[in-house]
Specification:
The structure holds 2 protein chains of 2 kinds. Chain A has 5 helices and 6 strands, in the order H-H-H-E-E-E-E-E-H-E-H. By secondary structure, chain A is α+β, with helices and mostly antiparallel strands. In chain A, strand 2 and strand 3 form a beta hairpin. The longest helix of chain A is centred in the last third of the chain and has 17 residues. Chain A is globular, with a radius of gyration of 18 Å. Chain B is α+β, with helices and mostly antiparallel strands. Chain B has a single domain, classed as Tetrahydropterin Synthase, Chain A. Chain B is 25% helix and 33% strand. In chain B, strand 8 and strand 9 form a beta hairpin. The N and C termini of chain B lie close together (7 Å). The chains are: A alpha+beta, B alpha+beta. Chains A and B meet through helix 3 and strand 1 of A and strand 6, strand 7, strand 8, helix 2 and strand 10 of B.
């Protein structure tokens, strides 16, 4: 269970994003957009600033590397274009088609609240390097189940994070302005993490 | 150089038909003066580079200009291409920006607000760009220290 109630997470998310400021009112001729001049935005910016120098997360990545010595492990950040960083455990295996089957166990770590998500992405990369559309699952099975469990325990131990309850993913945050959301609605998932969890390098 | 939009409004005796607007001008790879935001290292093997583009779009009919500012971010390494060299990142970012910009501006209706067109552009640009470089994002200019590059006349005057 999350350490937060649903209402606490909503309140927390709202503290980082101003209400109002619809995109239609943006004036790009201004040096800084109106929503970026709010106290909520200043908190969001400060959270990212801290995330860019996150020593505990460095330690986590090193521990994940130690736990998965035969995998490719690393952190991926899309600074200020999402609200999470990713701890990625990646493995490639040859496929009978001549390509590679790529399996990634991913821990998405919110930079706004001590909550995380673990999911698995699978894709097939052909011999030319082109990948199929990744299949994302929040309920890993088979050998990925153990990897996901290991990653989750490391995140909890080193960051003190708790799992984000997926049943709250679509809880709406009406009229909240999340800078990186262009058309998708602001929800607890999109505001605390990202609108595109599949878009990994 | 700038994106210039000529309204495609064809008026006959029975009324006006909206044809695709004619778009001229191209953003070039040189505009994409990326700043490295996340230096690739052991814990961060993918890295990140970004640039803020302040584009001015000129309406050819009236000469009026509008601004559309956007930040483009790309990983420096990914599993698709391994390394994404700077010149490749610049070329792809420019090529895809032109494709997305032309599509959105050519289909724009007369009087459409630039804020709406700019949002449509960012959505399409991101969708197309991540197909070329997985992990790429397009958003509002938000990252401190990222270079702001002007595409088109910065004050609406002659470039």
């Amino acid at each position: 269970m999350s350490a937060f109630t649903r209402e606490e997470l909503i309140r927390l998310a709202r503290s980082f994003y101003p209400t109002g400021y619809p995109i239609e009112t943006d004036d790009d001729s201004e040096p800084v957009l109106a929503y970026q001049r709010t106290p909520e935005y200043a908190r969001w910016e400060a959270a990212w600033e801290a995330a860019m120098n996150w020593k505990e997360c460095d330690t986590l990545i090193q521990e994940v590397m130690a736990a998965f010595p035969s995998h490719h492990v690393g952190r991926f950040s899309q600074p200020r274009m999402a609200s999470c960083v990713y701890s990625i455990v990646s493995e490639e295996k040859p496929d009978l088609s001549g390509g590679q089957r790529v399996t990634r166990v991913v821990g998405a770590l919110s930079v706004l609240a001590p909550v995380y998500l673990v999911y698995v992405m699978k894709e097939l990369r052909d011999a030319s390097g082109r990948s199929s559309r990744p299949r994302l699952s929040f309920t890993p099975s088979g050998e990925e189940k153990l990897s996901a469990h290991t990653l989750a325990r490391l995140i909890e131990r080193h960051l003190g994070y708790r799992p984000f309850p997926l049943e709250w993913a679509d809880v709406p945050l009406p009229e909240v302005r999340v800078g990186y959301l262009h058309t998708k609605p602001a929800t607890l998932l999109t505001a605390l993490f990202s609108d595109d969890l599949e878009n990994l390098p | 150089m700038r994106w210039m939009m000529l309204a495609g409004l064809l008026c006959l005796g029975v009324g006006c038909v909206h044809e695709p607007n004619r778009i001229t001008g191209r953003i070039t790879p040189k505009h994409f003066e990326f700043t490295t935001i996340v230096q690739p290292r052991r814990e961060d093997p993918y890295g990140w580079r970004a640039v803020c583009i302040n584009a001015r779009i000129t309406h050819g009919d009236s000469g009026a200009t509008d601004a559309c500012k956007f930040e483009v971010g790309l990983p420096i390494y990914n599993q698709q291409q391994h390394e994404v060299p700077l010149d490749v990142a610049q070329f792809v970012a420019a090529d895809v920006a032109n494709r997305a910009g032309y599509k959105v501006l050519s289909e724009a209706h007369p009087g459409e607000m630039m804020a709406v067109l700019c949002r449509q552009f960012k959505v399409l640009y991101q969708e197309l760009l991540k197909e070329e470089v997985s992990g790429a994002r397009v958003g509002d200019c938000a990252t401190r220290g990222v270079k702001v590059v002007h595409f088109g006349p910065p004050d609406g005057g002659v470039p």
